[in-house]
Amino acid sequence: MARMTMIEAVRSAMDVSMERDDDVVVFGEDVGYFGGVFRCTQGLQAKYGKTRCFDAPISESGIVGTAIGMAAYGLKPCVEIQFADYMYPAYDQITQEAARIRYRSNGDFTCPIVLRMPTGGGIFGGQTHSQSPEALFTHVCGLKVVVPSNPYDAKGLLIASIEDPDPVMFLEPKRLYNGPFDGHHDRPVTPWSKHELGEVPEGHYSIPIGKAEIRRPGSAVTVVAYGTMVHVALAAVEEMGVDAEVIDLRSLLPLDLDTIVQSVSKTGRCVVVHEATLTSGYGAELAALVQEHCFYHLEAPVVRVTGWDTPYPHAQEWDYFPGPARVGRALAEVMEA
Amino acid sequence: MIEFPQLSLHVPEPAVRPGGMPDFSNVNIAKAGSVPRPPVDAAPEDIRDLAYSIIRVLNRDGEAVGPWAGLLSDEELLTGLRNMMKLRAFDARMLMAQRQGKTSFYMQHLGEEAVSCAFRKALRKGDMNFPTYRQAGLLIADDYPMVEMMNQIFSNEKDPLRGRQLPIMYSSKEHGFFTISGNLATQYVQAVGWAMASAIKNDTKIAAAWIGDGSTAESDFHSALVFASTYKAPVILNIVNNQWAISTFQGIARGGSGTFAARGLGFGIPALRVDGNDYLAVYAVSCWAAERARRNLGPTLIEYVTYRVGAHSTSDDPSAYRPKTESEAWPLGDPVLRLKKHLIVRGVWSEERHVQAEAEILDEVIQAQKQAEVHGTLHAGGKPSVRDIFEGVYAEMPAHIRRQRQKAGY
Question: Are residues A96 and B183, on separate chains, in Cβ contact within 8 Å?
């Protein structure tokens, strides 16, 4: 076992995959010689050569379009979109091409690609470096959507994503790259080296896509979260002293509905937390599913805690970010109802 | 201070609209045989003229002339003629089938048959096309069964795509034909990626990208040229300029650049412009580009100058935006008639044999149609299952889709 940050875990996943399978290639903006703006691909070009890890022109539709072509040939491209906010020029390629190639060709062609993209706020990135576009992917049939919350999961899920026969959107909460950020931006961040989920095997392992993990068992209320918000929720639960069950979804599509239904059927209360905007966000889907499957167990309306329905602001970042105080208020609200 | 006039916006217009006399005097046509054939390793900057001329082999008298001539045997030319005639007959039958309600939609190739039929012959088994909706000649010329194409068009119980895709959006990996999207220009950059993969794996296969004049305005076209140029991908970048993007004349997408081929020059990609209605010229230019790609010399851009004689699709009425007689005035003639004339001049074909071949081909198409119709047409007979809606979204069906399938009763 080694101690790894999430950056190192993601890098290790690519390293292990490239080592095992010559068909895995890695490319994107600044990922070659330099190793990526977040350094996730550092050393891969030196180790595997520049035809397997290389810099791409600043053209996201070009990056994803060529990755789709490479996958049609038989490669397994794992490409980096420098920030999730930059994926929009590639949205046509993602939604109408990658997602549908298997379906429209009846399996004659397939599209085993992974798009890694740093996601979410908390680094003063303003509106073009802070977005959480997961709902724009979960709304598209044919894609898988994965959001890890720690180094151990990040590596196992990224290896599973690279080995998956279908296109996977792999959203990396960038505020978690160096430590389990719990939303208390005014406190020093615990490094991953001091967290048990910073313990990561150096070799190959994978975590099945579509399985949630209960981060904290509890009986009073269910908190459904993913990515950074898992740590925010855990902090809020501790501070409120509520016996909450905190579910880390890990994969939004496919979704581990059974784990949610089992938990809410037991607790009768549910808070859904995400950093993305509220309206038509993934929380709406979660709330609807809880309502459909657990209605007769519910003691209170499902509450959503999310980013506001505004662009991600710069200076007011911490008034936008749904931190532990807001999650705490939602817990109180749902417990009082 | 200098006084400048008020600004005004320039909106290009075609030379003629319905009611006017067709006029192609703006199309500058080089004499057949007059354009040089450079070596395949020529530096792009030394052959810039080829992006502004038109490479032609067949002259007005039906003779094959000049440095691009002489590549095809009698046998190969006869096969070429037969393939073009087959595609034309196939189109005519399927248009009729659409009007009879046997399918919802069809797109024909009338006037453009030489482009895809001749190009296919420059490729080898294992190479991959990323086609648009008007290159079915790639399948016909590779002997893909017509009955399979019809099964797809009719969305019947034997439809290889199980009713999921619009008519004519074929897919055949085996025949080097990537699944047609129906989306525009996306496949252009995918072809470059496929070619890059072949180079990454030190393979010998090459890719071919296809796009129409109108869609070259899409950003994916430009992305494709950047990636192809940067990585010297073994890809042939084809632009079929058939003059019309539905109702929009090619000048709207072309802007001030003179030709579509010239788009390649800024990327350092050799660019050739060819008479798209000349089977011999299309083949010769395709072979030149394919050889460049196979020799690892990188991409080539080819503009095929042709004319869309028919409507854009069965949902289109060209008489609303262009003169009805425009196709007759098209100066590059008809690809089938030109090759036919050449074969007669060569002494291997005759009017009688042509008439006979037309009858044979029509019979072949009708037989295929009968076979396909046994398995149903869009609104009658066998059809794909409702179950097929839910299959194949993912390799393994996720629980939520299974629940929805069960809800639908399957």
Answer: yes
